[in-house]
Each structure stands twice: as C-alpha cells, then as structure tokens.
What does this fold into?
Amino acid sequence: MASQDAERHWTIEDLDFSRIALDKVRPDENLFYLVTSASFIESGSDLYTHNLVDFFKGDQEVTDWLSQHWELEELQHGKALRAYVRHVWPEFDWDTAYGNFLEEYATYCKVELLAPTRGLEMTARCVVETGTATYYRAMARGTTEPVLHDLANRIAADEVNHYKHFYRFFRRYREQEKLSRFRVFGTIGRRTLELKSEDADCAIRHVVKARAPHRAHDTAYVQQLSARMNSTIRTNLSAGSTLKMLMRPLELPARVQTVIQYPIRQFMQHVFLR
It folds into this structure.
C-alpha cells in the first residue's frame, strides 16, 4: 500500500481550495497575471502533444509516454491553475479569455516549427521543461499563500520529472544521430531565446484583454506588466539548479563546466528571464 501511495500522481482533489488565504492573493495583480497566464499555456498542452506524437511517430516508447503521461499531467496543471483562478478571482471570465487565447495560440503550434531532428527536439524539450520548472519553483518561493505554494511545488516537481524523461530520450537520439555538442548548444541557445516569445506574450495579452479591456492595445502597459512578472520570477529563482538543467544536455567535463558556468549564468540572467 505504501509503494502504491508513493507512485500515485496527485490530483486536483488533493488541493483544498477552501484553505486559500484570499487576503494574501486577491489584491495581488501581478500574481493574478502570473497564475492566469500559466493556466492558459498549460491548458493548451494538447496542441503540442499532437505535434510531438506526429513528429516522433514510430517511436512507441516516446509517443506512449507523451500521450499517456505528459499530456495528461500538463492538462491537469492547467485545470488546477484554472480552479485556483476561479476561487480567487471569480469575476474573471476564464473560459472566454482562454477561448480567444487558444484561437491565436493554435497558429503557433505547428510541426514545421519543431527542431530539424528528433535529438535536437528532445534538446529543445529539455530547455522548455527547465523554463517551466524554474517558473513554478519561483512562484512557490514568491508566495506565502499556502495553497498556491503547494500547487506550484507540485507542478514544479512534475516538470522536473518530465525533464528527466526528455533527457533520457535525448541521450538515445544523440547516439543515433551522432549529435555534436556544437549543434546541441545551438539548439539550447535558440530555444532559450524563444522561451519568452509567442507563448507567454500571447497569454499575457489575452489575460489583459479580458481583465482590463481598456489596456488591451496599450503596448507599453503590457510590456511593463511582463517586466514585473519576469522580475518576480527572477527574484525567486534558483539560478544554480536552473543552470545545471540547462547545461546538462551538453554533458561537459566538470572542469569545462566550471570555466563556462559564469558566462552562461550571465546569458541566463539577461535572456532566459529577461
């Protein structure tokens, strides 16, 4: 029984939304945008799953894990975050705002936008999971509200577990494709630069459109809002663990890692969470 409990994945029912300390979170507009934007992106994960399953067609181990584990857990993240938003900010029309977001977001989720090889796409997946794990770890550190703290930690743990699977698949494809460190590093750099592009921008714009319609076309306001959100994450992130995850696919010797750690840390600070 103990081993079964240890293997059981958490569910939304494990979260007691009646314990939410509304006085700590309801007035916090920055937190509202952080949680709601994340709920949109997580809820659209099935679009990416279909693309990835198509891309890795023929590799049953990968496609089964994507369909039976990764997609279900990502969608659960979206449902849990949506439930949190509805409990704390019930006046926000989540369904309408998400529907508008999804209509635009679907145009960004195309198979042709994936990496040129399966091994490099697994590299890109490692970068994405590094980003999401960092985001939720920072969210957990940045709030004293117990339910959100618990939820963010649960999601962060899932994202780290997803990273481990993608990294294992990456190592298999790296050997098959004889990928050089140069190509892997190039993918890490490009995908890192893209982390703060369409997905997050699209989500923030649609949350603003529903939350503050008069600000919907105020580019300066949206940029300031995004900067505040990034500052919250940057202030609460664990740079060491993020850097370690980001560099791991390079599989560098320890001495080399020590030499390049500082410039990569600077790159991460100025780009990864700009």
